[in-house]
Write a structure and sequence with these properties.
Blueprint (H helix, E strand, L loop, with lengths): L2 H30 L9 E2 L1 E3 L3 E2 L4 H6 L24 E2 L1 E5 L6 H10 L7 E5 L10 H10 L3 E2 L3 H14 L6 E2 L5 E2 L12 H6 L2 H8 L4 E10 L4 H6 L3 E9 L14 H6 L2 E3 L6 E2 L7 E3 H11 L7 E4 L8 E2 L3 E3 L9 E13 L5 E13 L2
Parallel strand pairs: 1-8, 2-10, 3-4, 5-6, 6-7, 11-15, 15-17
Antiparallel strand pairs: 5-18, 8-9, 10-11, 12-13, 12-14, 16-17, 18-19
Bound molecules: 2-acetamido-2-deoxy-beta-D-glucopyranose (NAG) (2 copies).
Keywords: Membrane, Transmembrane, Transmembrane helix
GO molecular function, one term: phosphatase activity
Protein name: Metallo-dependent phosphatase
Length: 366
């Protein structure tokens, strides 16, 4: 072979190699990568935007809720008398679904969910782990269901950003300014497979979930009997908030740290002004336990009730000032919904009153 021919063969070989590398490493994969969507700032505090309209005991029964009232001499809150827009009959909060679509739908059938007259809020971690994350997402999107942002949504978004070469998820405060993320916050469990399948509409949906949601007034039970908390019982009301993991008792709603809101399980003693996601940390105490003791000593005007998820290990955890709704569906436990409504009744003197009521509904998970 002449050196010229040899040279031409080498050149051809080199061009072919580059061509193959381009084909397999860049061109072909691109055909399988779904179109991407930029990640926008995640909003820290959102409003529910719905208010409850009082419903009759008959309607309560129709909806499959417990309409029995044991003590009719309860005071009415003036606030609920004012007419507001976006009135709904019920607020329904669902704990960590984790891709368990079948059970989610079963639970919604059990509570006779109607998107027209109910405001449904999922408490974060609705995707990952279970079998049908995409089906859950599509259902949430198609029924315009409200959501709280959970740590697993964060992990998936983070993977999505890596996969598509986008800016990582970040948080915004009330004035739409970016908040810094404390170092060492998130672990980065690979939830890459799901992230790769997400379409722009999925990212758009997850992106508009807020870290905290102001719920307006919610039932406040006079007694701390577990059964009472579960089936309604007699109640007045306090301001309610929804968050995936928990809130710091020593900070205002505006000053909460997004990452703590997504990951905390315990406060760290002796001052309980730090949090951890690891309950086995030294001096760690369940955040809800301390939260409840702090609310008890707060002036009534400052006390708050928190609805949250995240804590499968402690299961359904109903306390006076905190309601843990993650009952471990993913680990073969249950999927829980807390249903809240206003019920019209007559007190023992025959005077019409309106009561705050709530009731837990559950389905078993495989
Ligand atoms: C929002 O965050 C920015 C930057 O950290 C800060 O300067 C601003 O005061 C914050 N606004 C509110 C309302 O918290
Ligand atoms: C927690 O509170 C103690 C006592 O008030 C204080 O000395 C400490 O700096 C606080 N720690 C944090 C992380 O805020």
């Amino acid at each position: 072979m002449s050196p010229n021919v040899k040279y031409s063969l080498y050149t051809l070989g080199a061009i072919a190699t580059i061509g193959f590398i381009y084909l397999f490493a860049f061109y072909l994969p691109q055909l399988f990568i779904p179109e991407s969507r930029e990640i926008e700032g995640i909003v820290k505090v959102g409003e529910l935007g719905s208010s409850l309209v009082p419903i009759s005991s008959k309607r309560v029964k129709e909806l499959g809720m417990n309409s029995d009232i044991s003590n009719l001499d309860i005071e009415i809150d003036a606030e609920i008398q004012a007419k507001k827009s976006n009135e709904v009959e019920r607020l329904i909060f669902v704990g960590d679904i984790h891709g368990h679509y079948v059970e989610f739908r079963k639970l919604l059938r059990q509570v006779k969910f109607n998107p027209e007259t109910d405001h449904l809020l999922v408490m974060g971690d609705f995707i990952t782990k279970g079998p049908d994350s995409l089906k859950v997402l599509d259902y949430l999107i198609d029924h315009d269901i409200d959501c709280i942002f959970g740590n697993h949504e964060y992990y998936v978004m983070n993977n999505y950003a890596t996969f598509h070469g986008l800016k990582s998820p970040h948080f915004m405060n009330e004035t739409n300014e970016m908040l810094s993320i404390k170092d060492g916050g998130f672990n980065s469990d690979p939830e890459f497979l799901l992230a790769k399948k997400l379409q722009p509409k999925h990212i758009k949906y997850i992106n508009q979930c807020t870290i905290i949601k102001k719920l307006g007034q919610v039932p406040f039970h006079k007694f701390n009997d577990r059964k009472d908390l579960k089936v309604g019982g007699d109640s007045n009301s306090l301001p309610g908030y929804a968050v995936h993991a928990g809130l710091r008792w020593d900070l205002s709603i505006e000053d909460q740290e997004p990452i703590e809101c997504l990951e905390m399980r315990s406060y760290i003693g002796p001052n309980f002004n730090e949090t951890t996601d690891d309950p086995d940390t030294d001096n760690a105490v369940s955040w809800s336990k301390i939260w409840n003791s702090k609310q008890k000593i707060a002036a009534k005007k400052d006390a708050k009730i928190i609805y949250y998820g995240h804590e499968a290990r402690r299961g359904l955890n109903l306390r006076k000032y905190s309601k843990g709704l993650d009952s471990g569906c993913d680990g073969g436990g249950k999927l829980s919904a807390m249903v809240i409504w206003l019920q019209e009744a007559l007190n023992s003197k025959g005077k019409p009153v309106t009561l705050y009521r709530e009731q837990v509904h559950q389905v078993s998970c495989k």
